[in-house]
Amino acid sequence: MVFVFFLSLLCILQKNLIKYVCCIVYVQLLILPAVFPQQSCTSPNMKDYINYVRPFVHHRHDTKYRSFNFSLLSYNILAQELLEKNAFLYDWSDVQVLNWDYRRQLLLNEIKQFNADIICFQEVQESHLNWFFKKLSDLGYNGVYKKRTRFHCDGCAIFYRNEKFTLKEKVTVEYNQPGVDVLDRDNVGIVLRLSPRKNETENIIISTTHILYNKKRHDIKLAQVHLLLAEIERVAYKGSRKVGDDNIPEYHPIILTGDFNLEPNTAVYDFLINGALSYSNLQKPTLWSQNSQSGRCNMGNELIPKSLGITEYSQHSDILELRKINNHKRQINDSLYSKLHHSERKNEQLLSSSSSEFKFGSGNVYHNLKLSSVYNNNISCSTYHDQWTIVDYIFYTNTNLKLITYMKLPNVAECQPILTMPNRVSPSDHLPLFAKFIYQIK
Question: pLDDT at position 92, please?
Answer without folding.
Answer: 87
